[in-house]
Amino acid sequence: MVPPGATGRKDKPCHFVFPFRARPLSCRVATATVHQAKDAEVTDLTYIRVEWDGDLVVVSVDRQDKLNALNAEVVSELGEVFSSIRDDDQVRGVILTGAGDKAFVAGADIGELARMDSISGVRVSRQGQEVFRSIERFPKPVLAAVGGYALGGGCELALACHLRVASDDARFGLPEVGLGIIPGYGGTVRLSRLIGLGRAVELTLTGEMVDAERALAMGLVSRVVERSALLDASKSLLRKVTKNGPLAVRLALESIYHAVDTATAEALDLESSLFGLLASTEDMKEGMAAFTEKRSPDFKGR
Ligand code: COA
User: Fold this and answer.
1) Is the domain 246-292 a CATH 1.10.12.10 member?
2) Does the CB atom of residue 247 touch ligand 1 within 6 A?
3) Interhelix angle 246-261/230-242, nearest 10 degrees
4) Ranges under pLDDT 50 in the chain
5) What amino acid positions are annotated as catalytic residues?
6) 215 C-beta closer than 6 A to ligand 1
7) Which residues have CB under 8 Å from 234's CB, separation 6+?
8) CB 85 within 8 Å of CB 49
9) Domain ranges in the chain?
10) Closest CA to ligand 1's atom 38
């Protein structure tokens, strides 16, 4: 049994990722990274940094000498971090970004890919898909703050997030076909849903990069900001979401992403059920009372 807040890989002993998490909120260092935290030596994250800012968590891929490329360890650590904060009520939203000023993530690690055969190729793709799927189905909003290169697996990682903000120097692309492979972390599935079939096919088959303005025009990102403002603008957008009823946000995500995979009639059924479910919550009463009383709601997530 993995205790809450602990990582639980089968091949490694359990380590608490957030040893400070159980303390009262006021005791928590607002922007302490896992690496900086006092008990950090019990963590085993090499390539992922985790910082708190109030009820937001900023998760950064930090492998700057390789432009944050996703090797197996990075993918595994990403999975661990998302799984460890998934059921933490104190987390209301997550920002996923890349450390340094050159890249969000410049793709899967080409050195590793070069060594795969057809069996391990399937495994690599599946492992990445699983982690990216856990991000897509994360019960709290996840925003990709993209600065610099978001190529291949990096672009696919941004696609798996719920919201995307880019800095003006961002570059998106799926260059895989130029390496003799195809996107394997969900890119052939998610890109067309987001920007339409025609544009997705062109981007995937040409392997060309698009700049931030073009990404904005095609709906790949919803906002472009100056590089220096990327994190603040991302937090500000995410806070516009997290100030709303947490259960409502969660179930809106559930309804939207469930609908992507199901027929309309079934999706509408689920929407009605979730709508009804929310009508039994304290949050709904609070939201409606706050409107009537002309004040801000104080949602409790119940
Ligand atoms: N996998 C492994 N290493 C990568 C990488 C990747 N996807 N992307 C960049 N790197 C490494 C480079 O090999 C280099 O390492 P080195 O210093 O040990 O040689 C380092 O990151 C810096 O990259 P570099 O190519 O020198 O930077 P640049 O500014 O000249 O070019 C890119 C930047 C992003 C255009 C270029 O690195 C690139 O095309 N990367 C591959 C992108 C890609 O095809 N991704 C999809 C993979 S499926």
Assistant:
1) yes
2) no
3) 100
4) 1-42
5) 156, 176
6) no
7) 95, 97, 143, 145, 165
8) no
9) 6-242, 246-292
10) 106
